[in-house]
Amino acid sequence: MQSGTLRGAVPALLGKMSAACCFLIYKDIFMSQIPPERPDTPCVAVCSTTFDEVCRGCGRTVSEVARWVFMTKKEKDAVWKRITAEGYPRRQPW
Fold first, then answer.
1. Among 22, 66, 17, which residue's Cα sits nearest to residue 41?
2. Which of 10, 34, 59, 91 is most exposed by smallest CB count within 10 Å?
3. How much is the average pLDDT of 46-69?
């Protein structure tokens, strides 16, 4: 099917459906492709820095835990990127 034909067919098809049906199609097609939002903090309430400076639950350093509420979004994103690459936080996927 040519893209021009598809562009014309979609609005015609959607015009014959109820709003609820259109929403369900939209949700199934587009929303499933958007990753869920991550929590504001990687904390999993399993805090332990017994043997080094890295929390066993979330993977942040003691300094990162202490500064978390003062960090910018860019700083938090950098921490999230590092800890997820290292297999943290140790929780069920969000």
1. 66
2. 34
3. 90
